[in-house]
Design a protein that fits this description.
This protein is α/β, with parallel strands linked by helices. The protein has 16 helices and five strands. It has a five-stranded parallel sheet with strand order 2-3-4-1-5, sandwiched between helices. Helix 3 links the parallel strand 2 and strand 3. The radius of gyration is 24 Å and the shape is globular.
């Protein structure tokens, strides 16, 4: 809802004085910030009327920057990134932190009409009083990771804008090859466009030649190898990820996540859910759900339950230092048969 309000404000050039952006989708934050900047301080004096503060910010310094009048422009932009001012503070620093938040509240309530103050954070604590003050006096917008179905549509649109055609299935493959963030997906699409040259249609060979596989995609390959009872191939893929310096705890987590999805989709299918319903339940695109469904048929239900339980136990063993992380993964892979 708040994102729709922001879109309308930018479109109608009615940008307010105060915003708080949060969430993990950096690409969307950047796109909307660029649009707002062009509306607020477009022109030759742009550099003179934009202030960027990053990390811990002194409230007095922030107030000074907000109060300074713009030069040869009606408005100015003050951008504060990753300040941590909207997170709960440690108990030992509580009094100092509360004083800082009180100062921030005063600043917000006395913000000059010519200043647009935008805070950009990854996480916020919605229980803080200052959040309510921002909500009453400005707009809070969340930028979460987008759902796979939306990312697939976006990939198709990006390529269509460059007069390239990609099927929904191959667009899903591009999305699945990448981690969640749109920045990485956008980079992979740009690589595809350059590789295609004058050609207008994306093929599976193009994706395999050009696109870099994320750990998520490599885990799929590893699961395929296990399903095919090709343990040698599974250990080769594990070694490839080690060479690429993928963190072993992350690999263990991803394997556990993959087998949990296999278990979930097998149970959903057993209960009568179709592929679209199953995809929505586990939060993936129908294309990826069909791949998971296909993989799940290679494993018995009891085996999947056992692997999920064992992976959780090994995760605890790694975190408590009882088992080396690489050894834990090898034990898990060796035990799946």
């Amino acid at each position: 809802m708040s994102l729709d309000i922001l879109k309308e404000q930018i479109k109608s050039n009615k940008i307010k004085n105060l915003y708080l952006f949060y969430g993990h989708e950096e690409y969307l934050k950047r796109i909307y910030l660029e649009s707002m900047e062009s509306k607020i301080i477009g022109g030759s004096m742009k550099a003179m009327n934009k202030v960027v503060l990053e990390g811990k910010v002194d409230i007095r310094k922030l107030a000074d920057n907000c109060e300074t009048v713009p030069l040869f422009s009606e408005r100015k932009l003050v951008l504060v990134k990753n300040s941590g001012m909207f997170k709960a503070s440690k108990k030992t620093d509580s009094e100092k932190a509360e004083g800082k938040k009180d100062g921030l509240s005063e600043l917000i309530l006395s913000l000059p009409s010519y200043t647009c103050l935008i805070f950009v954070e990854e996480e916020i604590d919605k229980r803080l009083k200052v959040i309510d003050i921002v909500k009453k006096n400005g707009l809070i917008v969340e930028f979460p990771f987008q759902k796979p179905q939306e990312l697939v549509k976006w990939v198709i649109k990006l390529l269509r804008n460059k007069n390239k055609v990609i099927s929904q299935e191959l667009a899903s493959m591009v999305v699945n090859n990448c981690d969640q963030g749109m920045v990485e997906i956008h980079n992979e699409v740009e690589k595809l466009i350059l590789y295609l040259g004058e050609r207008g249609t994306v093929s599976i060979e193009d994706i395999e030649k050009v696109c870099t596989k994320s750990i998520k995609s490599r885990i799929f390959d590893l699961t395929d190898a296990i399903a095919a009872k090709n343990r040698t191939r599974a250990f080769v893929i594990l070694e490839e990820m080690a060479v690429l310096k993928e963190p072993m705890p992350k690999i263990l987590y991803m394997i556990a996540r993959q087998f949990n999805q296999l278990l979930s989709i097998k149970l959903l299918h057993k209960s009568g859910a179709d592929i679209n319903e199953a995809a929505a339940k586990i939060g993936v695109s129908p294309y990826i759900a069909s791949k998971i469904m296909k993989q799940s048929k290679e494993f018995e239900l009891e085996l999947l339950k056992r692997v999920v339980e064992e992976s959780l136990e090994l995760d605890v063993a790694v975190k408590t230092g009882r088992v080396n992380d690489r050894v834990a993964i090898e034990m898990l892979l060796a035990d799946i048969n």
